[in-house]
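Board notes, transcribed. Complex of a protein with adenosine monophosphate.
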Amino acid sequence: MYCKYTDRIKDECGVFGIFGTEEASVLTTLGLHSLQHRGQEGAGIVSFDGKNFHSIRKQGLVGDNFNNTDTLSQLPGKTAIGHVRYSTTGESKPENLQPLFANLAIGGFACAHNGNLTNTFSLKKKLVESGSIFQTSSDTEIILQLVARSRKKKLIDKLRDALSQIQGAYSLIILTNKKLIGVKDPFGIRPLVLGDKNGSPVLASETCALDMIGAKYVRDIENGEIVIITESGLESIKPHKQIPERPCIFERIYFASPDSIVNNKTVYTYRKALGVQLAEENKISADVVVPIPDSGVSAAIGFSQKSSIPFELGIIRSHYVGRTFIEPSQSIRQFGVKLKHSVNKSCIENKRVILIDDSIVRGTTANKIVKMVFEAGAKEVHLGISCPPIKHPDFYGIDTPNYSELIASKFNLEDMTKMVGANSLFFLSLSGTYKAMGFNERNPKSPQFTDHCFTGDYPIDISEILEINSKSND
Ligand code: AMP
């Protein structure tokens, strides 16, 4: 059943913003380039030239749509924000591209959002019933509507009012005629960092975007924090009751760029440590360690170094095909996996191969690649996954499918091994995952991450989403 209040939007996104510099929209374009791995469906930039707001939102890759000379002339001004977006089946509508922009009573308001709200249904129902008209099916528009309808006088109070009503994961970058604002949800689920480009403040999903424009990393935006950047400087407020942060563990396992820095270490370092830990937990005799590129490369390096089994590029990845999940249906997705990977026979033939990937979701990639490797003459194929089995869907902004599509939620290890067709399949333990992240163990009372995809421990209530999903499946 189609639900009139929600389109089941799930976004993986990247956000960027820069304040008070020449060529703001060009720098935003560059920032979005480096965040392209966070979303390939579409991109958008809104700039402010001191008088007017300018907006371009296009489906497709940043490089295909934003060319530096044109960008600057069409998006003038010293302040700009941008967004790259990725969504799932049936929702790739141009109107859902961000940043969303509205002319409110207090002036223009543009918003770029990474994450997912969890109480969209009830909020939208209330808003629609009291006369709001929605132009998109994006949960971000709810934030705009709540700000627009707030009876508070000042923009920041209106925003606080809106934030007090929304639940879920959100890292926001907001642009008004005087301010650039960064917001992180109370758990700090999605990332957001602050940088400095020759005195101009920068906000971005990951530090790789700062490196791209030659900006210095200043600090992470904290969980539950709002930073307000104006001509007079930066102000920080924390409107919520402070709780321990719980960033999404999957950012480190799969989503973030390997060169981004989190807690003083590159994401690559964490991924390599996951591979080391996987080798520590699983002693397998084999001739070669082969990554499933690109996602398995860092962990495979760690696995190979720890096990002293040689690392070989036995699978070659085409860089002209995007992330496989972008394909809308299962049949096309399978075709996509073939397009993306081919076998380097010389490394595989007559060998006992350990394949390494970062995760298994539906099992499509693993099944195809194991088959390819056997067809190329491997004697044995063992598949190591550098995270625990993903048994629960994500509702906080990373696109993982429903329970029914998650292979590890439906099948046990033995059945999964048969389904992927490998001689053996092994996953990293949850405690090993925490260890690789630099923690002794997962503290059951106050876990350091949101790790619901492995544990089902959702820190933010998802009952509304589950209810809607069950009605949609009726
Ligand atoms: P699957 O083929 O459905 O089992 O998906 C697993 C592959 O997709 C692995 O190679 C992962 O690196 C990659 N992957 C995992 N999570 C995601 C995600 N949220 N979006 C896109 N790709 C993903």
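DSSP finds 17 helices and 21 strands in the chain. Residues 56 and 129 are 31 Å apart (CA to CA).
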